[in-house]
Design goal:
InterPro entries: FAD/NAD-bd_sf, FAD/NAD-binding_dom, FAD/NAD-linked_Rdtase_dimer_sf, Pyr_nucl-diS_OxRdtase_dimer. The chain is 28% helix and 23% strand. It is α/β, with parallel strands linked by helices. A hairpin with a 2-residue loop joins strand 11 (234-239) and strand 12 (242-247).
Length: 467
């Protein structure tokens, strides 16, 4: 048995781990990056990129199907095997790019295997070798959850984001469990490609939406594309060549496959954080400071999906950098800069959640896209949103579900990050006819409510239905 030594050990070679290793090494630390597979990031392999490739194929089919509204006849002929073949081909390009990044790390700094704590500054590898380290970054990512009511389904019929993209062809029918971002995206993508889809969730609002008017607009669209069962208590089991899903008062239906998107809890099995003296919460996640990402006062930091704080790629990259820097400088630890919270779901229409959305503490104003010029032009007369501001008019957050919400969300996130007010945004140019114009009624309403409203803010412009 050998004992290796380093300044900073990083457990996990995903987005957060790669970011932490790079930042620690740039800070002058000797690093060891430990991963059992070095397969690539979740984003490239089973997350952001393959899911968007499936959505892109669905968008192409949906555009062809909806072309009749414009006097164009183009019924789509969907080749399920061809869709997934292209998806995997392009996905593998993204994965190779990640592998190139990993290959840039010196071979001596990489260890293939699993690691577990045997002390606050010591790890044991499955080979029996040990690592003495000044500090450790936990960046083990997350794995799909399979709740008990769905475990009776056999593996070949039970899908997750880690298996869906490797199917030889599209299934004829799928029940999707979970209407969060992942389940919602995949349910709509599959439905757009001609798959019979039923979407189930125990909550009554899909996509993490909290504003009833915004959620209603999305649900109205979903109900035209699939069977939608919200507030449903669901279970499933094998049924001949398919899966029988049962919900609520004994209703049931059979599908070819079951896609479980019921969350991705941190992958901390076998890490044994208690032996490092780390206190954990009820979910087994080490208690940590969100600013510095330090676990208690131990020389241990946790970043990315492993801490379940902001499980998004851009957040994992930022957290990895903060954790790597603090691990290299330990015990001189400080809070890193965190940008405004910002999440996008690539549903159709898209969802953008920005910053604070505390309806009881903030000013709020709604906006709608139905009836607006650009929405009518593109036959996408749906979408709603709500903007939030401090009492002085400074923008605080937004919840939007509308065509182009990924771009609207960026504009609003940048405005919140820069401390802009609703009036500041109205001072910016708005081109006509654009989706962005739909924000102006809400911005004007926030100005009228705030203590800093100017006379021109009170003009009643941009009424829905105007060109």
């Amino acid at each position: 048995m050998a004992t290796l030594s380093c300044d900073v050990a990083i457990i996990g070679a995903g987005t957060a781990g790669l970011s932490a290793e790079r930042r620690a090494r740039e800070a002058g630390a000797k690093t060891l990056l430990i991963d059992p597979y070095f397969a690539g990031t979740t984003c490239a392999t089973v997350g952001c990129m393959p899911s968007k490739l499936l959505i892109a194929a669905s968008d192409a089919a949906r555009a062809a199907r909806n072309a009749a509204a414009f006097g164009v006849t183009a019924p789509p002929d969907i080749d399920g095997a061809g869709v997934l073949e292209r998806l995997r081909r392009e996905r593998d390009r993204f994965v190779r790019s990640v592998h190139d990044t990993i290959d840039d790390i010196p071979q001596a700094n990489r260890i293939t295997g699993h690691a577990a704590f045997i002390g606050p500054d010591r790890l044991r590898l499955e080979s029996g070798d040990e690592i003495a380290t000044r500090a450790t970054v936990i960046a083990t990512g997350a794995r799909p959850a399979i709740p008990g009511p769905f475990r009776p389904v056999t593996e070949r019929r039970l899908l997750t984001n880690e298996t869906l993209f490797d199917l030889p062809t599209l299934p004829r029918s799928v029940a999707v469990i979970g209407a969060g971002p992942l389940g919602l995206e995949m349910a709509q993508a599959l439905a757009g490609l001609g798959v019979r889809v039923a979407l189930f969730d125990r909550t009554r609002t899909p996509g993490g939406l909290g504003i009833p008017d915004v959620a209603r607009d999305l649900c109205a669209v979903l109900e035209t594309e699939m069977e939608l069962y919200l507030g449903a208590d669901t279970s499933a089991e094998d049924d001949g060549d398919g899966v029988r899903v049962t919900w609520n008062d004994g209703q049931s239906a059979t599908f070819e496959a079951l896609l479980v998107a019921a969350g991705r809890p941190p992958a901390l099995d076998g890490l044994d954080p208690g032996r490092a003296g780390l206190r954990t919460d009820d979910s087994g996640v080490p208690v940590f400071d969100p600013g510095s990402l330090q676990c208690g006062d131990a020389p241990v930091f946790i970043a990315g999906d492993a801490n379940a704080h902001r499980p998004l790629l851009h957040e994992a990259s930022a957290e990895g950098a903060i954790a790597g820097e603090n691990a290299a400088r330990y015990p001189d630890v400080s809070a890193g800069h965190r940008t405004v919270a910002f999440a996008i779901t690539f549903s159709r229409p898209e969802i953008a959640l920005v910053g604070r959305r505390d309806t009881d503490e903030l000013l709020s104003a709604s906006c709608r896209w139905g009836g607006r010029g650009r929405a009518r032009i593109e036959a996408q007369e749906h979408g709603a949103g709500c903007l939030f501001a401090e009492k002085d008019g400074r923008l605080a957050g937004a919840e939007i579900c509308a065509p182009g919400a990924e771009h609207l969300g960026h504009l609003l996130a940048w405005a919140v990050e820069r401390g802009m007010s609703a009036g500041d945004m109205l001072d910016m140019p708005f081109y006509h006819p654009t989706i962005e114009e739909g924000l102006r009624p809400a911005l004007r309403a926030l100005c009228r409510q705030s203590a800093t409203a100017r006379p021109w803010d009170r003009d009643d412009q941009d009424r829905p239905g105007s060109c």
